[in-house]
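Handoff note, outgoing to incoming analyst
You'll be picking up this chain. Sequence as last confirmed:
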Amino acid sequence: TLRGRVTVAGRSDLPVPGAIVEVQIGSAFADAALRGLPGPTPGLATAAQPDGSYELHHVPSRGAVQVSATAPGFARQLRGDVQLSSEGPSTVDFNLSPGLTLAGMVVDATGRAVANARIEAWPQKAAGEALLGRSDGRGGFLVAGLVDGPYRVRVLARGFETWQQVDVAAGRTDLQCQLARRSSVRVKAVTADGQVLRSYRLGLRRWFKEQPGRLGT
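Most recent structure output, in case you need it:
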């Protein structure tokens, strides 16, 4: 069990209810069971209670993990290399400083909303992990936990090409991410006498019309 409290920096009497506390792999040698959990990130997550307290069960019984706390209006705080022990519950508290959010829409070429797209905001001025968000049924998204500065934004969605833009200022609320649909090919393989092949291997390479005979990877 991992527990603690999320409060405003410098004000231990002011909780941050609803803050998302997440446990992620701390190193390549940490408990690999976390990698198989469902969700947008390979980890365990919970929301802080009205008094700022949180509690996470079923964390690895030993090893190193990293724990983060994120909330709208606050910068994400990351506690790296948290050592876990099977002897009893571990405690990790957070004191969040003011931060920024990034919001916008994810649509296709016709302007139709793209739901459940994964939005990644990577800091450009300093090393760090991406802050994540998901688009809703109307295509809208909100990524919380940013600090002032430029970000590289990447959007991924099933059936669409990856969208990317650099130098996106933290705090924007009007970011428009227009995704291009991926093409698809449907193949049916048969023998020379028309018998259906039910097991075969298919390779697909790009062909360049301007350079006959040249194939892409």
